[in-house]
Specification:
Number of strands: 16
Distance between the termini: 64 Å
Largest sheet: 10 strands, mixed
Number of helices: 19
Strand content: 15-25%
Helix content: 25-40%
Shape: elongated
Structural class: alpha+beta
């Protein structure tokens, strides 16, 4: 087995590995944990079969000279394969956690829930008592082999979770038809528990009063939330000296009769983001569901017309709709449309080729005449953040049909073209004060012009800072917007129709039709 040892990246020489390996073997550590505590970090070693790992572990314990004698210092005891008792360090997670039975269960779960993705990753929730047990093994090694283990700590070792993923990931790939990747957005989470040892952390409550306060009221509140958790147990152990810990806990930990069981198996996929632009042609359609005093107004909304079909295609649990601003119910959005983003929660389908996205876009558009969407595409989480970047610095263009109190001539509108970067002071409009806090804010109208229609009407074209209340600028909102079109024209003015002509945001990218 000399070749087996050459591949191990442990101590400086093979003989140095033998005493700690024997002690770990006698303490009841499985081959994976034996290698972990010896400092092995070679991924490929852990991916071997259980039989091959057992051979490697026994080779480390028995290192033979050419004449057949044991080269390890100490007795000449020959180590043989032990029974399949649960490991004292991992409680059997690395022994039985990748059983064919559990792999079958994972495969069935993924198939039943209909996940269609190319990558997956694994996540483990392990019993918190493993923190105590691993610390106990490490202190046992420090005491017995101080030269090799002084300064070593659990956080420098390969974790149980990492080894489990290395062993199970490749085996699941073939079953699921997906590639394993540790940063995959599709997560299969396994929760392990061990009833036999679940009270092994209880001693920390009395041993570490600073971590677990004795105040009865606080203790009562904390007990409801679970006073012992991963964070508090780790903090408590770090607060104890090595001698104090070893006086309270058997080092190495006691052997057990039962193995860890996977009690819960859940699948989760991170959100998928779909972006695009929408046009709104109706003057009686709200952007999102409109509810007043618990009563629904309107049969549908822009967000529902867009998102319902997208949600179904991606088999998502729910969705969240957001956009670059919003228009009132009676306002149209024309031009290239308004950028929007759909966050799909817990999607079961995560990838969609662009040709399928075009078909989805056509399907949405063919289902209504109230809206139309374009540039539909899947974007990354990072890309989705660009929707709200520099929100108040963006500009928007509008056209408004204005009615004036006194008769006008075309020349009466020319002065509007000379006004540049006009700063408005706008108080929260009366029409929205019931749902927004009272505030005053400055907004800028960059330029505007008037298109004469008749003596009582003209069309006002404006380019403004995002967030400007256009209706209030036109009629003044009883003096709450200063200056207003009414004060500039020295007469009462009112708005009859409003259209958003453009939202000047270079996002998302244009998709060729």
């Amino acid at each position: 087995m000399a070749e087996e040892l050459k591949q191990l990246k442990l101590f400086s020489d093979a003989a140095a590995m033998c005493p700690p390996a024997r002690s770990l073997h006698e303490a009841g550590c499985c081959p994976c944990c034996l290698l972990r505590f010896l400092g092995e970090k070679n991924t490929q070693i852990y991916q071997r079969s259980a039989e091959e790992l057992q051979t490697v572990a026994l080779t480390l314990c028995n290192q033979l000279e050419g004449n057949g004698t044991v080269s390890c210092t100490g007795d000449n005891k020959k180590y043989e394969k032990t029974d399949d008792a649960p490991c004292t360090a991992c409680l059997g997670i690395l022994q039985n956690g990748c059983s064919e039975e559990l792999l079958d269960k994972i495969q069935k779960k993924v198939e039943e829930e209909g996940y269609k993705t190319s990558l997956f990753s694994l996540s483990l929730m392990t019993p918190i008592q493993l923190i105590v047990r691993e610390h106990a093994v490490m202190l046992f090694l420090r005491e017995r082999f101080s030269e090799q283990y002084t300064g070593q700590s659990i956080d420098k070792m390969i974790s149980i979770k990492d080894v489990y993923k290395w062993r199970c990931g490749p085996r699941l790939q073939h079953r699921l038809g997906m590639d394993y990747h540790h940063q995959s957005p599709f997560l299969i989470q396994l929760t392990f528990a061990h009833k036999e040892t679940e009270t092994e952390c209880s001693f920390l409550i009395s041993a570490c009063p600073k971590v677990f306060p004795t105040n009865s009221r606080k203790r009562k509140r904390d007990s409801e939330q679970g006073v012992l958790n991963r964070t508090s147990v780790t903090k408590a152990i770090s607060s104890l000296s090595e001698s104090k810990f070893m006086s309270l806990v058997t080092c190495p930990p006691e052997k057990v009769d039962t193995t860890c069981r996977c009690l819960e198996l859940t699948c989760y996929h991170e959100a998928v983001f779909v972006a695009g632009r929408y046009n709104k042609y109706s003057r009686s359609l709200s952007q999102t569901p409109w509810v007043v005093d618990g009563e629904r107004r309107g049969e549908t909304s822009v967000s529902e017309l867009i998102c319902t079909r997208i949600k179904d295609i991606f088999m998502a649990q729910e969705y969240r709709f957001s956009s670059a601003g919003r228009e009132d119910v009676d306002v149209r959005t024309l031009g290239r449309g308004r950028p929007f983003l759909v966050e799909l929660i817990q999607p079961h389908v995560s990838t969609m080729p662009q040709d399928k996205m075009k078909l989805l876009q056509q399907e949405v558009n063919s289902g209504t005449t109230d809206i139309a969407i374009r540039d539909l595409q899947v974007v990354s989480r990072e890309e989705s953040g660009k929707l709200k970047v520099g929100e108040t610095e963006k500009t928007k263009s509008y056209s408004a049909l204005v009615r004036v109190e006194k008769p006008i001539q075309p020349d009466d509108l020319k002065f509007l073209e000379e006004i540049k970067d006009l700063t408005l002071a706008q108080k929260t409009p009366i029409r929205v004060i019931h749902r927004r806090p009272l505030a005053s804010r400055d907004r800028v109208i960059h330029n505007m012009s008037g298109e004469f229609i008749d003596s009582q009407h003209f069309r006002l074209h404006l380019k403004t800072q995002a967030g400007t209340y256009i209706k209030e600028f036109v009629h003044g909102d009883f003096g709450r917007t200063q200056p207003s079109l009414s004060t500039l024209m020295h007469m009462d003015t009112d708005i009859l129709e409003l259209d958003v002509e453009s939202v000047d945001v270079d996002w998302p990218k244009t998709v060729e039709e």
